[in-house]
Write a structure and sequence with these properties.
It comes from Marininema halotolerans. TPR repeats lie at residues 156-189, 190-223, 395-428. Keywords: Repeat, TPR repeat. The protein is mainly alpha-helical. Among the domains are: 1-133, no CATH class; 351-462, Alpha Horseshoe (Serine Threonine Protein Phosphatase 5, Tetratricopeptide repeat). Helix content is 79%, strand content 0%. It has 26 helices and no strands. Helix 9 runs antiparallel to helix 10 (190-202), helix 13 packs antiparallel against helix 14 (257-269) and helix 21 packs parallel to helix 23. It is elongated and about 100 Å long. The two termini are 56 Å apart.
Amino acid sequence: MFQQWLEQLTKELGEIGESYPHAPEPDRSRLKEEFKEIQLICENVLEGWITLEEQMALMAKKYPELATESAQEDIGEEFWLEGHVVRSFRQGQGYYQLKMFGEAKPYFNRVVQEAPDFLLGRVYLALSYFQQQNWEEASKEFYLVTKTAEHSRFVSFAYHMLGCIHVQKGEDELAVRQFTRSLDIHEEGKDTWFNLGACYYRLRNYPEAIPQFFQSLRLDPDDWESMYYLSCCYKEVEQWESVRFWRSAVYKKTNHPIVMESIAKDFEDTGDVEGALRWYQKLMIADPKRASAYHGVSWNKWASGDHDGALLLLQKGLTLEPHNKEYLFTYVWYLLQQGELKKVEKVLQRLSDEMLSHPQWLILRSRWHVHCGDFTNAKATARQVVDSQDPYTCSLGYYQLGRVLLEQEDVKEAAKHFHTALQLFPQWKEPLFYQGLCYLLDGEIEGTRQCWEQLPMIISSD
């Protein structure tokens, strides 16, 4: 019964915290009163609890056989303190358990000031600062724990929390150092292994991240988050069999739509339209209001030649998310491929100048000019993309210029632009295909062979 009451009180307090920032003034007054009532209840409960614990401690000292071994250890650690310090510590603990960190902090501060060697008080103070995102004070207290604690677990925990603070500050390289120190002391810290792996992942050091997630799985074989990160790491290093193994493992553990979508995108990335379609359709059934599922099925239906079906599904996705810029772009691209030039023009006229100046839309506008036979504007629009400082965006510009020149049957100049696009962003292989095509049209068969031999193989879903 007490646990249920505590959970109910915690829930009510959470509701106050969520409602208060956005509540009108009359509701704020009511919420303040509700908060004061909870605060008063907590103080009364804590006072009674502390009195009860003090009585239990006195009895345990007088009759040691009444206490269990673990209870005797607890009494030995805490009750050598002055009574009022114990009282402050227990009151701070009570507020902390209710996630009232601001109210807990003064009590832990008092404990640390009056009993600076009482380690648990300092740990709770540091955690209270952490929960309130006061990184400087939290770091100072955790650092003191690393220097004063006699028990290795406390030192390991303090280094772990110092790592967490660096993560919150976006300092992953510094976080790696602290997590490593923590594991050097206590190598069974599952969360520390996971956090270390996540740091390496964000630092794009995927080969170093992988073994950390395996260590986390060693300690908890059901840790689906580590499985998911492993699949992401293997995707970055293009080990597709491992990607699919770990994605499937995560899916079996969670059956979560996000995982289903990730698997579908993996098939897309390897050019497996059939596999992508299968998983996007599963996603569409599992989550009928997920617009990205309709977009995914649509895109892959288009790739497989079902253009009418693709357009209908994309329109459903746009109904669910009418302001999604990616879906709108895909819709206009479909219309362009179907030769609906007037419809494309109408959509372009309704778009803002800011959207039209985005590289993606500039490329589409350039292609629209090509379809209209306006090669001058097609090249001028593509050149705006070439001026970008971003290598990939600049590569898109040169690629589009190559496409325009190819339409004009200037294959030699087109080949040069495709080559430049490839040099700017070697990971993107489509310019390589068109460069080979230019060589073929110009009768340079050897050049075509050299280009096309570098194209990746398509991985089957079978």
